[in-house]
Every structure is written in C-alpha cells, then in structure tokens.
C-alpha cells in the first residue's frame, strides 16, 4: 500500500497549483467567488474561463497533445479533479464536450467530424449538450422515442428531450434518436451530431427546486441532420453511447473530493453556531454525528482509492463506479440535510436575508438531484446487485 | 504511486488461510467448540503454527516472519469469516506487540518462540467489577515484596480465559485511581494459583471467564514494561488490537454478505429467486456497501498503524466505530433475508450476529471511538 504521488505526479500538481494561483479570476482564492447570477453574463464568464484553461493546456488534460491536451495519466486526472475542488474552481462550461464527446470523436469519429468539431470543443468555441433523457424514458434510456427519419439526403428529427444540462448555452447536441422500431429497443438507436442553431430546435429552461435554470427541455420539430453527422453506425447508437461513457475514466473523483471539503465546511458551521452559549460542536450528540459523517466521507475516499487501484491494475473501470456514485450522492445529501438540521430557526431565511450562508440551503435543495441524475440510486443498486453480486435482473429488458 | 490494495504476499496469506480453515471444517470449528469439543481449538492452533500464521508479526530472531500489521489483515479476515474461536487477535495483536516493544530479553526468549510454535496462547485480563475500560477501574492490588508480587482481586469478562496459557494482567502497583500506578504482569497459569470460573457467554464460541487472584504469587521478572506506567504501554498495544478486531469483523461481514447473496439467488418464492425483488436485492447491496467501507477503513487503519501515520489514532477509531456498527447491521439483515431459517439454531446466521454483538463493546463502544476521533480532531 502506498498513498504518495510520484515525482512526475507531484510536478504535475505543482504546475497546476502555480497556474491556478495566477489565472483564477481575481479574488477567487481569497474566497470572493463571484459567478454572475444572470444566465447570459454567466455564459460569457464561463466561456472566458474555458478559453483560459485551454490556453494553459488545462481544458482537456487527457486529450492528445496534438489537440491541445496533455495526455495525462489516470492519476494525473485524479490530481486535476482534486486541485480543482481544492480551489473551488469555476465549472468547465463545455465539460460534456471535453470529457466525453471530443474523446469519442477522436476515437470513432470520421476525419471530417474531427476537423469540424474537435478543436472548437476544447477551446470552448462551441458548447455541447447531450440529448439523452426523454419525458417517458427516465431511467430506461433505451426507451427513447425521438425519431430520425431518412428523407432524401436528410435525416428529419422529431421529438422531445428533457433534463438537458447546458442546452441553453449549447451550439451542438450529441443526440440519441430512434431510427428503427422493428427490433429490440436497444437496437435501432442512432447517435447524431445536431446543430442547435437551426430552426426546428427549441430549448426551454426548467426552473429547478433550487431556483436555478440548470436543465432544459429540448424540442425537435423537423430538425435536420445528415449522414455525415452520424457517430458510429446507423442503428448502433447504443454502442456509440457506451464508448462515450467509457471516457468517463475518473468517474466521481470530483464529488468524492468535494465531499471531503464539504465535510470541513460542515465542521466549521458547527463550530460557528452557538447553543446555550457554547459552540455547537461541543455538544456530544452533534460531535458524534459529525464524526460519523467523517467516517463515511473517509470510507468514500478510501473506497475510491481502492477502486482506482483496481482500474490501474486491470486497465478498465468496473461496476465499482456505481458504488462510488451511489454512496457519494447519498452522503452529500445527508450532510447538507444535517447542515439544515443544526442551522436553527434561521435556516428558513433565503437569499440575501439568509443568516447562515445561503449556500447550504441551495446545496441542500440541489442535492436532491444527486441521487437522481446520471442514474438514480435505485438504478445504481440494481447495477451493483446484478454486476457485482450476480443477483437476477428484476425485470426482463 | 497510489496503490491501495493488499500486496501479492498478503493475498497469498488470504488464500492459504481460507484453504487451511476450510480443510479443518470451516464453520464446523466454532460449532464443535461450542458443543464442548475443546480439542478442536487445540488442533487448529497447532495447524496455524505449522502454517506460520502465529509468527507473522514476530521478529525473525524469535522465529517469526517480522511483518507488520497489514500482513495480519488477511489472516484475521479469514478467521472472522469462519467465526474461529480462541485468542488469535489477543495473542498476535496485544501480546506480541507488547512483548516486542517492552519485553525484556528474557521474556522475549521465553514467550515469542512459544507463541510462534503454537505452544502458548495469551489473552488480556483487563476488566474488573463493572466491566468498564478505564484506568480508575484497575484495582487489582499487586504488592511487591522479596522479589515477587502478591496479587489480590478479581478480573471479569476475560476472553478465552478457558484456553489462555498466559494472562497479561494490568495491576495496581501504586497510586489509587490514576493512570499512574498501573503495571502489566505476565501471569502464567502453570506457575500460579488462580481460580478460573467460566462465565456464561452470549457468544458461545468466544468463552469468557472470571478470574480470582487470592494471594497469588508472581515473580518480579514477570513485570512487562515500565513499573507504574503500564497503562500507556497497554494503550499503544490496544491500537493493534482494535485494528485486528476490525479485520476479523470485516471477515464476518464478508461472509454474511456472501450468505445473503447466495440465499437471494437460490431461495425461490412466488416462482422466482427472492434476490429478484428489489426489496431484498437492495438490502443486499446496502450490506455490500457496508462491507466495502468497513474494509477500506480497516485497510487504511492497518496502514496507518504500520506506518505510524499522523492520523493513526483517528483512523483506527473511525474504522472501529464504523466496522462494529456495520457488522451488527449486516449480521441482523442476514437473519431477515434468510427468513424463518435465519431464526434457527441450525443455520449459521446467529453465529455471526452473536459475534458482532460480542465484539461491539469489547474494550470500547462505537460511541467511545467516535469521541476518541473527535478528540483527535480537536473538537
């Protein structure tokens, strides 16, 4: 067992730290983290940030050097996530593009697709979203109904998507559409690259529980794509989407590290809050609850390291990712809930009137999404049960 | 390089221990032991010695392998999986560390080779009257005179009191209630007159005894570690024991998850295996998560112990508290998943549940551990 980084890994870490010191927006490291509230301004702010990341070669670190990446190792990618969490860096606006779509196009895209899209993904010139979920599909991704029909040289797309992150910023969409209805539902799906800036594509923000427009509905009304926009083979979109997912190599690293930090913040909160003239953390019940969270957040991190070791040894991610995903989202949710519980009556004040930082309340509400998005906890449990424990599937797919 | 897994040698320990215990009857060992066949333990103990498992963390010059706490992890896990009776954790993780760190040359030469050879089992006779693990409760008096100690008093809840050849006994040689004044004595059964009364145990594979010392004479050479400052020495060895207990509990959790999983796949109800129902399936997954986290926390605690890491005390306390709770939780769930069968004596479920409860409060509760961790964090 060994928990240390190699000399090269340490050098990588230091280079990134030094870069962040000079390149994060001014005041950022001192805690003045101001991301504009207005969605339009926010978009400009985040595009600027990604441009800066790109210029420093920190936008798509696992990418080939020829395309502006660093060909970073798995551990370097983990270090990257860790450092970004440490400074609470602004999010990468084109995360879907840099983490998954770019690498997928580089792997299985045509030359034309690579020329057309790849550079603009990493430098943030074109923002991408993923057209996956549909109102009636939910966790059953293969049940999608959005249709693409070949008419002459065009594919005509009709249907509705939902829960699409970043769609209101997006220029391009990686879309799964049904191209054949005759066989099993996993067959007959095709992956398209669809231009969002065309008539026939409409996005409508969904106001979420935490009052942020992070998701959108997308409507496709005779939207157009061409053969050259297909990734992989016609009717083999399911395979393409699996290739896409395989690029998510570091998995829930960011959430795992974020939880360590959020735990520290929860402790700070308990130290700040007073009850009967003393710091709340001196209350044995509070203290023990916090120590339990400490044990669980440490377990999460150590599980992650064990799973990572396994990935390094075998060369591929296993179903353990589902354990990390489920445990981290459930724990984050419980920790925010506990912050609400100990915050006292002031916790019902919102926004600028909040006594305890409103971040807790926003995070609390936001965290209800954690155990739903990217596969609900229940779906993760099914995956763990079936793939790790060999238990029977509960329904026939 | 981040590498958080057992190494090849340690994995080999795991495989060979499992094979050995299986060849000896696996869960038949605790079953027969609790039915009164005391020789089972003795036979197994000699086998363990032959395989080298009793010398893992003993220095090479006394016949051991000279390995650290991480190498005990896989062996203890396997013992936990099979609910093995006997003082393996106490011998390897209290007696060996204490002897290695504090033993005189004479003591080391006497005890360590005999431990390695399987000729001597040791346990800790710590608790008195109310069973609370604190320095105030050490009242067993040991008066020094003419080169020997005379002991007066009673120890209770002594694990494996029926089979241990030597007891490590914290006694009061000075002070009244404080940490100061506690000394550790090595008390050999063959040389002393002590009265051992077996106490009825909730967990029948792990026997406990009340031990009475009346004018018991112990030679001065049997003092282990510094006189009057034995409490500190004991606490350092207690870290080893807590990690060892965590590993045996992880083994127990591993086995109950396996049992629940097997049963879920084979037990048919309403025309299908019960593991197809999410109500059962998701319970088993929760158990598997408990296993994963217990194992990670325990590995880390063992690593921290072996490397004397800065956060060692905290790491051990967190592992102990989480794992103790997880073992009780998973062993209880296992009974539920087995339904009526799980409620019978014949099925093995209850062995694990009772072991979990027997270890839960052994030398400290989960809450005690949480308070230790909180203290380490400066709260």
Automatic annotation (TrEMBL), chain A:
InterPro entries: Acyl-CoA_Oxase/DH_mid-dom, Acyl-CoA_Oxase/DH_mid-dom_sf, AcylCo_DH-like_C, AcylCo_DH/oxidase_C, AcylCoA_DH/ox_N, AcylCoA_DH/ox_N_sf, AcylCoA_DH/oxidase_NM_dom_sf, Mycobact_Acyl-CoA_DH
Domain Acyl-CoA oxidase/dehydrogenase middle: 129-222
GO molecular function: flavin adenine dinucleotide binding; oxidoreductase activity, acting on the CH-CH group of donors
Domain named Acyl-CoA dehydrogenase/oxidase N-terminal: residues: 8-125
Domain Acyl-CoA dehydrogenase/oxidase C-terminal: from-to ranges: 235-389
Cofactor field: FAD
Source domain of life: Bacteria
Swiss-Prot/TrEMBL keywords: FAD, Flavoprotein, Oxidoreductase
Pfam family, one: Acyl-CoA_dh_1
GO annotations of cellular component type: plasma membrane
PANTHER family to which the protein is assigned, alphabetical: ACYL-COA DEHYDROGENASE, ACYL-COA DEHYDROGENASE FADE34
Similarity section: Belongs to the acyl-CoA dehydrogenase family.
Name of the protein: Acyl-CoA dehydrogenase family protein
Organism: Salicibibacter cibi
């Amino acid at each position: 067992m060994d928990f240390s980084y190699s000399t090269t890994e340490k050098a990588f870490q230091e280079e990134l730290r030094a870069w962040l010191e000079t390149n994060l927006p001014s005041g950022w490291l001192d805690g003045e983290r101001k991301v504009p509230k207005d969605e339009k301004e926010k978009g400009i702010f985040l595009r600027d940030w990604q441009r800066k990341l790109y210029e420093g070669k920190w936008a798509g670190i696992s990418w080939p050097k020829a395309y502006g990446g660093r060909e970073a190792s798995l551990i370097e990618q983990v270090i990257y996530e860790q450092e970004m969490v440490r400074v609470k860096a602004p999010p990468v606006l084109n995360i879907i593009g840099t983490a998954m779509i770019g690498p997928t196009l580089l792997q299985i895209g045509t030359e034309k697709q690579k020329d057309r899209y790849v550079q603009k993904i990493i430098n943030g010139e074109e923002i991408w979203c993923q057209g996956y979920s549909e109102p009636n599909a939910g966790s059953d991704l293969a049940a999608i109904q959005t249709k693409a029909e070949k008419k002459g040289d065009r594919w005509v797309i009709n249907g509705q998507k939902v829960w699409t992150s970043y769609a209101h910023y997006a220029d391009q969409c990686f879309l799964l559409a049904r191209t054949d209805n005759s066989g099993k539902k996993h067959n007959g799906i095709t992956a398209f690259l669809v231009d969002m800036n065309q008539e026939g594509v409409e996005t409508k923000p969904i106001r979420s529980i935490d009052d942020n427009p992070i998701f959108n509905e997308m409507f496709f009304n005779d939207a157009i794509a061409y053969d050259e926009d297909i990734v992989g083979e016609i009717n083999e979109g399911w395979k393409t989407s699996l290739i896409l997912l395989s690029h998510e190599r570091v998995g829930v690293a960011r959430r795992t590290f974020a939880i360590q930090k959020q735990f520290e913040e929860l402790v700070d909160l308990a130290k700040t809050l007073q009850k009967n003239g003393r710091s709340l953390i001196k209350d044995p019940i509070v203290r023990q609850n916090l120590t339990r969270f400490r044990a669980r957040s440490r377990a999460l991190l150590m599980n992650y390291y064990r799973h990572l070791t396994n990935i390094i040894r075998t060369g591929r991610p296993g179903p353990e990712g589902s354990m990390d995903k489920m445990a981290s989202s459930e724990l984050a949710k419980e920790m925010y809930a506990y912050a609400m519980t100990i915050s006292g009556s002031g916790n019902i004040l919102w926004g600028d009137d909040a006594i305890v930082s409103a971040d807790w309340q926003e995070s609390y509400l936001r965290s209800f999404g954690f155990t739903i998005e990217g596969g609900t906890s229940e779906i993760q449990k099914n995956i763990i049960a079936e793939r790790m424990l060999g238990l029977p599937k509960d329904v026939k797919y | 390089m981040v590498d958080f897994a057992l190494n090849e040698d340690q994995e080999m320990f795991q495989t060979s221990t499992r094979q050995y215990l299986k060849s000896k009857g696996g869960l038949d060992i605790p079953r027969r032991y609790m039915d009164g066949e005391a020789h089972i333990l003795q036979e197994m103990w000699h086998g363990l010695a032959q395989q080298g498992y009793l010398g893992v963390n003993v220095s090479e010059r006394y016949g051991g392998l000279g390995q650290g706490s991480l190498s005990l992890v896989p062996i203890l896990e396997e013992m936990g999986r099979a609910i093995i009776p006997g003082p393996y954790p106490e011998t390897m993780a209290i007696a060996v560390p204490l002897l290695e760190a504090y033993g005189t040359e004479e003591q080391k030469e006497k005890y360590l080779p005999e431990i390695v050879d399987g000729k001597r089992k040791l346990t800790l006779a710590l608790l008195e009257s109310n069973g609370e693990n604190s320095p105030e409760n050490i009242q067993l008096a040991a008066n020094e005179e003419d080169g020997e100690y005379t002991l007066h008093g009673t120890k209770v809840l002594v694990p494996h009191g029926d089979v241990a050849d030597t007891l490590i006994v914290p006694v009061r040689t000075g002070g009244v209630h404080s940490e100061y004044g506690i000394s550790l004595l090595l008390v050999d059964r063959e040389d002393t007159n002590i009265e051992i009364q077996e106490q009825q145990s909730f967990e029948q594979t792990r026997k406990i005894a009340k031990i009475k010392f009346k004018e018991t004479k112990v030679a001065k050479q049997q003092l282990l570690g510094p006189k009057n400052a034995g409490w500190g020495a004991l606490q350092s060895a207690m870290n080893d024991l807590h990690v060892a207990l965590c590993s045996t509990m992880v083994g127990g959790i591993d086995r109950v998850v396996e049992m629940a999983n097997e049963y879920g796949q084979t037990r048919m109800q309403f025309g299908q295996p019960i593991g197809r129902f999410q109500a059962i399936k998701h319970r088993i997954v929760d158990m598997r998560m408990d296993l994963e986290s217990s194992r990670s926390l325990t590995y880390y605690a063992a690593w921290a112990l072996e490397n004397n890491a800065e956060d060692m005390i905290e790491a051990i306390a967190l592992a102990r508290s989480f794992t103790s709770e997880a073992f009780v939780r998973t062993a209880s769930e296992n009974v539920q998943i087995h339904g009526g069968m799980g409620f019978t004596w014949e099925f093995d479920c209850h062995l694990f549940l009772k072991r979990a409860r027997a270890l839960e409060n052994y030398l400290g509760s989960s809450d005690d551990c949480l308070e230790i961790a909180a203290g380490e964090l400066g709260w």
